[in-house]
Amino acid sequence: MIHSIFFINNSGDIFLEKHYKRVIPKSICDYFFEEVTKNSSPENVPPIIQTPNHILISIYRAQMHFVAVCKSEVPPLFVIEFLHRLADIIKDYFDEVSETSIKDNVVIVYELLDEVLDNGFPLATESNILKELIRPPNLLRSLADTMTGRNSTVSATLPTGQLSNIPWRRSGVKYANNEAYFDIVEELDAIVDKFGGAVCAEVHGSIDCLIKLSGVPDLTLSFVNSRLIEDASLHPCVRHRRFEVERLLSFVPPDGGFRLMAYRASCHGNLPVPLDLRHTISFKQASGNSGHLELTVIPRPPSGRQLEDLVLTVPMPRAVSGASLVASAGKYSYDTASRTLVWTVGRLDSQKGAGSPTLCGTLVMQTGAPVPDCRPSILVSFSITGWTISGLKVNRLDLHGEKYKPFKGVKYVTKAGKLEFRT
Amino acid sequence: SSASKMSNGGFQPYNSPMDQLGLPPPDHASSTGSQDGDRGTRSSAADPAGSAFFSGDFKKHDDLRAMLESSKDSQKLEAMRRIIAMVAKGKDCSDLFPSVVKNVVSKNSEVKKLVYVYLTRYAEEQQDLALLSIATFQRALKDPNQLIRASALRVLTSIRVPVILPIQTLALQDAVSDMSAYVRKTAALAIPKIYSLDPETKPQLMGVIEKLLADKTTLVVGVAIQAFEEICPNRIDLIHKNYRKLCELLADVQDWGQVVIINMLTRYVRTQFLDPAQQNQKQERQNPLDPDHELLLRTVRPLFQSQNAAVVMAVAQLYYHCAPPGYMNIVIRHLVRLLRASPEVQSCVLTSLSALSASSPHLLSGHLKCFYIHSTDSSSVKLVKLDILTNLATDSNFPVLLRELQAYVSSPDSELASAAVRAIGRCASQLPDTTDTCLNNLVSLLAKKDESVVAEAIVVIKKLLQVQTSDHSHMIVDLARLVDGIAIPRARASILWLIGEYCDRIPKIAPDVLRKFAKSFLEEEDQVKLQIVNLAAKLCVCNPKQARLLAQYVLNLAKYDQNYDIRDRSRFLRPLVLPDPSVAEPTLLAGKRVKKILLAPKPAPEVQSRFAEKSPFQLGSLSHLLNLRLPGYQALPDWPAEQPDSSVRAVAAPAPAPSSMAAYSRGGVDRISGSSDESEDEDEDEEDDEEDEEEDEDEEEEEEEDDDEEEDSSEEENT
């Protein structure tokens, strides 16, 4: 299915390659570079590129392109999802996906690449299994290895998970402190038109877990208002039938961090966008070469909560060469290369009467350029902790199959997803 | 050279295992000789350049060789790590092959693993030397450790050296009946490797596949089907006996295997059952589905909730191609859900949805808002979304949609803005009732400052006016006035064409426009020049009094133009519109006939979605996405007209679920999973739980406190 994989960074270096069948020369990537130069930004490179004899399927993640070369029919999502899984594995091993983390651990990455695919077909992609086959780097362990003279990251025996009925879980897990953390993160996707009405709005949530429990724990997570969950996707460990019938999550978790569930929250009626925005942006002023900008944020957080990490981003047209503004709260910056105005407001404390922060001033227009008549969108990001916009709440978590009492924690966060205000 | 000496030195002890293989001894002398020759030419080629770099490189490899020869594992490991790092970067390390291959016997598992990795990469280039490692693998194939057996089989079959084909096939046949499912899985993966090495092995491999298809472990079935798909995708008959088992195991197979199995079963269903939509027509009410057909749809359904987008897409296309029409809502809902996934997944899913929106827009009409464009979408996603939105346009949703499209027209992304203008045009031609609204809208866009938007609007207006029967002369007048201010050639050409085509409706303005353009003819772009020539010819026929001299002037200019198309056009039109009275027979091409030729009613161009014609390809396949039949694509068969024999799927005894699965079945159909199993096994626990009930309540409060603590900590982080 997948013939070869290339890792390419933003400056166009192929810094890693792995071939699963006959070697395909690097020059195949020239077709890819052609597309890169054709497109203004790396995000715009089409994920599927057709060349005379091959198909290049790529993803862009963490400033890198992961390119898979295929020769024949293959489900495109299969390859894309695989490449993402690969990036996830790398992230799981080295805490981050980046060119440096890959280059620093190139041998382990290469061993992983050898293990995840055989002849181009996925072999082992569960990170719990992989970690038993190829041990991730670890300072403590490398110290121990030097002391004992052992020096190998490769296991000599088959991970028991491979053959068990719960292949996602490592065997023989032991912790001194048993802990289970659940992060419920909801993201608000919305477009607000210039009159302040929501053109469309959706809430998508996910439950990410960090489970450090000994043995083979069997967990049951139930919700206060499970009817809010629509269109869920579940980790393979979740018992599907019980979710369908009882709307609760019953599962033997993998060891470590993983995404338990992602869902769309049903929201009848209007969603409360937790802030309002007043804006005037004009690129023309009577006095000549300057435009005018005024932004006012009116926070509407739920009672007792605060808007945090509030950032407003305005991609400006090319003709705006600079900005001289005054921010009543936070800081602003104007990046002349990408022509982007970023206003970092930070945290808005509603109790202390921070009021409505404003950003106001003039936009410097390029001399000679025609006055643009497009309307830029304002991208907003924020987070509110301790609150879910849909109102979803965990009822209880029960543990079966093990005798100890774990430490349990749930955290709720609401964030802006793709939230934009049209002007 | 020293390098060749070393490699020869390395050979000696390994000649004996070679003989054990019973292989024809490779011609060592000649092969190493040629290799030395290669190396010689390479180094001599480097020498004249006087490059210190090459010799330095050789030296570096020399110390790697020394490390590989060393007796310490740590040295060997370090050397192998450095070599693999070079291989990963794509540097050529084939000259180290002789030194590396010796370490295939290493006791250190990582050294061994790295040597394996190196071997599979270079064995094809160094076939004779690669043979030296074979005996080691043959021994490892008998090892009591299943991981060692499996990896030996993996590497052995990955060595693309035709000479060892008999050994590979033999090893494969043994591995298929191995005790360990993991080894059997490796065997299944090895089948396509052997096939690609020599397609003649197909009959033998078929036997192996048949054996593996009967395997009942979830680990094996996915890869077995993959091998089936690559070797003999048309032998549907091999699936019959395994069909029900596949359905039942599906939920527990690894996600990658699920995709392959579902795609294969889609073809199976299309050959073995009757079309559920067709049955509706023949008889009054719908026939019940074949129980086996229903079984598949039922067992597959939970997989809609997979976290792997490829699985969701596979299930969606199965339902799309094989389920009764009533199920399409579920399909769409889950495909729309995938739009939240990574941008690449989004882009692929949108292409599929775009095809659906063209063939059956009613299915998607409820999800219109999901396709609204965010300014952060990638440019290809924006265009596909726009295509879908236009496909979904109806008279009832048009006002909302138009407002949305207008917002895109003022987007800073000029590509999107132009595409939005085109989309308005497409709405107008799809929905005749809205044409006037659209035209007015487009005309109002002409006041915009963004040239590309104005140009696009003009081109679209041109197309729309062609379709319109009613008189829009005022609009053409407006356009004629605008032409001076527009620099984009495509737009100028469109206006000129319009004026020429409808010159009888604007008799006063048309000659004036021609006058202006005759003046600027030399400075115009080719496509504008062509339209000036056309305009001149048409005017000359309709209004010879005012235009004849102008036309003559323009045609003369065009006659000596640099572009041959323009010269040709001038030569072609001149005798028609300005007949030479001395030569031509005036009766043949009298004025009226010429007018009929030049101003014949022209069919309006059709603006269509890319997927206007129903794609013959399987939804979600790469061929479907590229609209091109790729090698290896298995066409979706048509439904059979008669019900094929359904008894072929009957299995003597109902396949018992493998014991290992009973304890943990997620999507099992008939076996009730989870709770009931536990209630038997874990009675004690349940009692404990009841006792714990109260404590749990307390714990909840604790949990709440935990919450607050966590919040506090995160707040601290933020500040």
From TrEMBL, chain A:
Domain of life from the UniProt record: Eukaryota
Membrane topology according to the record: Peripheral membrane protein
Keywords carried by this UniProt record: Cytoplasmic vesicle, Golgi apparatus, Membrane, Protein transport, Transport
GO cellular component: clathrin adaptor complex; cytoplasmic vesicle membrane; Golgi apparatus
One BP annotation, GO: intracellular protein transport
Record's subcellular location: Cytoplasmic vesicle membrane; Golgi apparatus
Family membership noted in the UniProt record: Belongs to the adaptor complexes medium subunit family.
Official protein name in the record: MHD domain-containing protein
Organism of derivation: Macrostomum lignano
Automatic annotation (TrEMBL), chain B:
Location in the cell: Endomembrane system
Statement: the UniProt record of this protein carries the keyword Metal-binding: no
Major subcellular location class: membrane
GO terms of biological process kind: intracellular protein transport; vesicle-mediated transport
Feature: compositional bias, Acidic residues: 677-719
UniProt keyword ATP-binding, yes or no: no
Region described as Disordered: spans on this chain: 1-54, 647-719
Sequence similarity: Belongs to the adaptor complexes large subunit family.
UniProt protein name: Clathrin/coatomer adaptor adaptin-like N-terminal domain-containing protein
Source organism: Macrostomum lignano
